[in-house]
Amino acid sequence: MRKMMLTGGLLMLTGCAGFGLPHHDPAQAWIDLDSQHEDTTLQALEVDNKASTDKRYFEVQPGSHELTVRYQFPVEPSNIGPDAEPLWRDCQLNVKFNSFNAGEKYQLQAGNIGFRPWAKLYDRQRKVIGQGTPAGCQRT
Question: According to the lineage, what is the superkingdom (predicted)?
Answer without folding.
Answer: Bacteria
